[in-house]
Amino acid sequence: MSEQKPKTIFEKIWDAHVVKRAEGYPDALFIDRHYIHEVTSPQAFDGLRKRGIKVFNVNRTTATADHNVPTKDQHLPIKEALSRHQVETLRKNCAAFGVELYDLGHPFQGIVHIIGPELGLTQPGMTMVCGDSHTSTHGAFGSIAFGIGTSEVEQVLATQCILQYKPKTMKIEINGKLGKGVVSKDIILYIISKISASGATGFFVEYTGDAIRSLSMEARMTICNMSIEMGARGGLIAPDETTFNYMKGRKFAPQGAEFDKAVEKWKQLPSDAGAVYDVVLKYDAADIEPMITYGTNPGMGMKVTDRIPTVEELKEINEQVSFKKSLDYMGLEPGSALLGKAVDYVFIGSCTNARIEDLRLVASIVKGKKKANNVEVWVIPGSKQVEEQALKEGLNKVFEEAGFELRSPGCSACLGMNEDKVPPGKYCISTSNRNFEGRQGPRSRTFLASPLSAAVAAITGKVTDVREYI
Q1: 27: part of which helix (H) or strand (E)?
Q2: Regarding the domain with residue range 9-164, which homologous superfamily does it belong to in the CATH classification?
Q3: Residue 2: what pLDDT?
Q4: For the range 435-442, what are the long-range contacts, defined as Cβ-Cβ under 8 Å and sequence gap of 24 or more?
Q5: Contact 184, 223 (CB under 8 A)
Q6: What is the pTM for the complete model shown?
Q7: Cβ distance 93 to 87 under 8 Å?
């Protein structure tokens, strides 16, 4: 009998979930957990209605309102007509189809990619989808998680399966010790700046190496969250003791003896020795410094102490037109530095950086200090549970005394879909994941950075090297 070929964690999970496979066709993949929210679900539910179909498995479907929700006065009716309509439609659909909804005011409400892990719904070895590109966040637990389109949302609601071609695999290994002031957001911005916003297109990425292993679960989620920003289908990190300790005792995680049994199963997931990847990339943690983006895609990033490249320094000639257009939009000059550049807004939040650890990082920098007069600062917790924990730890007082505004949970100023928009022409240092034109509001200008870098910019009123401040 021939020995089994060594497999990557991705192959193990994918192959275990294939319901049907046929040469030349996509695999029919079983989905363990389907997350839905108000933006990409209405047409999917309408499709079910037209066909007279029920949701195949309501117990594997979890809904929350996050994208369109206001972060002020959440107890009042939503002011924006479109936002109000979308949230009301989600309520009606969940009631009609028997899907549990964590609505505004519910203790479990929050950004979908933050509530899944904190409730223990997200578990190692699972397949998970959501009509939202940043579903890759859940891969931090050693699971296959990816965003899907509205027609696919309908497919999963109807069958609990999805048709997908199996992606190629990429391993990104980071070894060594991280420097002062460098956190997981800097790691992922560094990787994307190296391989570009399309460098992992068609791949599922596994992050490995001792620098990754040393990270907390919340930091790992930040890295997996932004896999999509380099074009990847998703990203994942093999589960280990850090994962199991995080999961223990969470509401929907296995309990007691069942948990111990689950852990034994989860321990089989990591990639086998000798498993083959289509591409392997290696980086040294010592090369990573606090990062910031200067352009209009997350690949246009640099060390905060560097200067923006000139047109001549671009590796690809075909990048030149979009590079010039991007800098024109941002009001920046090629070859110039960003250090000392004044900012108008600081946004701390989003599914990338709105967990309790992120808020603690920010509080550690701003405690006993005041924000700069020229800056408006919004701190948006990722969920009701994060908000509650922040209040319990007195972080709200730290923020209040610094002149920061702590609001209620939601996607907020990550995307211009609700009331929290950055005004035209204004500069915002943001802990979110995207800096596209108009992403935070029409003609708004976004610098992506870590919670530490955002916190220090709020105090100084300008782009600052956090290492000078710690």
Answers
A1: strand 27-30
A2: Aconitase, domain 3 (3.30.499.10)
A3: 52
A4: 435/293, 435/295, 435/296, 435/297, 435/298, 435/300, 436/296, 436/297, 437/296, 437/329, 439/414, 439/415, 440/347, 440/413, 440/414, 440/415, 440/416, 441/413, 441/416, 442/416
A5: yes
A6: 0.97
A7: no
